[in-house]
Specification:
Serine Threonine Protein Phosphatase 5, Tetratricopeptide repeat, mainly alpha, globular, 465 residues
Amino acid sequence: MPEEDNQAPAKARAFFEKAAKVAETNNFDYAIDMYLQGLRYAPDALKEGHLPLCELALHRQGKGGKKPTMVERMKRLRGKTALEQMLNAEYLFAKDPDHLPYAEAMLKAAVAGGYNQTANWIANLIFQTNNAAEKPSAHTYILLKDSYAALGEFDKAIAACQRAARLRPADGALADEFKNLSAELTMARGKYDAEGDFRESIKDRESQEKLHAQAGVVKSDDYRVRAVEEARRRIAQNPNLPANIFDLAEALSDMENDQAENDAIGLLENTYEAKSDFSFKQRAGLLRIKQLRRKIREAKAALETDPDNAQAKAALEQLSAQLDSTELEHYRLCTKNYPTDLGAKFEYAARLVRAEQYNEAIPLFQEAQKDPRRRIAAMNQTGYCFFVKGWLADAIDVFTAAIDSYKLKDDATGKELRYNLARAYEQQGDAEKALELYRKIAQLDFAYKDVSQRVDKLRKAPGAE
């Protein structure tokens, strides 16, 4: 076995060095194989193996590298040993770094194999990714909770447990688990007195009381109130520290009521006026958007309860219009103040499209194509703008270029690009090319949008096949 080989470190280093050289030639897939070969000899080589492989994966993705095939997925989603399972999952993750379940499979195997440095790193990456997701997964937070606990990282396990509890407020088991993890954290710090109240075994009594208060996140708003109080104490001690200002604003926003949210926005706006630092205004804008989205959720819930409520319908329409205008202005200011931020330009352009300002959106989408993470989406949006403007030949050119850069046909992006290209051909009067594209989509996903109806319509047209 490689891990029993006395020459394993040297062999691993040789593979890593070869992988780095191969990667410089853009032979990414071979470089991935070389990194994984090295990791067979040094499974926990974080700096030499896992980190450069992750960087390579992102670079490969930016160059339009293909995702793993179905055969590769079937072959790699198993393994006889924890090491084999980890490397198989890492292979898939390297070829599709946006697919979090591959990272989760890698984490499970790393924990099972005792590759603690690797497990800690991938767990932190998953935690950050899930936190930033539009719809974070409670299942992922529970996996992180269990993984961190197995690694003895009880503070991080508690943080993951809290996040899961916010998504599953009725889950009493998470409250119990929180208490257990708090106790484990206490014991891990070596200050546990088996004959007394374990809270007394921690010198910083206030910190321990905070842990117990956090358990209430499952059943009440107690923790949120305490979080605001703590943030207020910190800002009173150092009112000019930006981290303290941001923390208080975030804690107030988490209260999810108008007064607290408005206080948070006001704090950030006033600080912006005093310091002329746009980061405060940017955060205020995000909290204002968050507030509007909360109100829209509440309005939708009220409308579901009473679908015929005209007042609720009007309120929802007004809030939706307010959100659109607020987002448009927010991202306009972000683009103005951060002119090199391609992400802000993409978001601003998307809001301009929503406002039917296509001429203003197109150059921003074209600039956003320089960002490898948004290149295909920005090309698709550029093509859509041309389509709406009636520039059909230009739309066809852009959609075709995007398809050439994005080889997958069967995922959501691949189908959307082909559907949009078909729409452009159909609008241009080239029914034959449109029908061919619609047929290919229907063969992959018959229920996709209105593809089946469009196929039927074009087949019935005079002169059709």
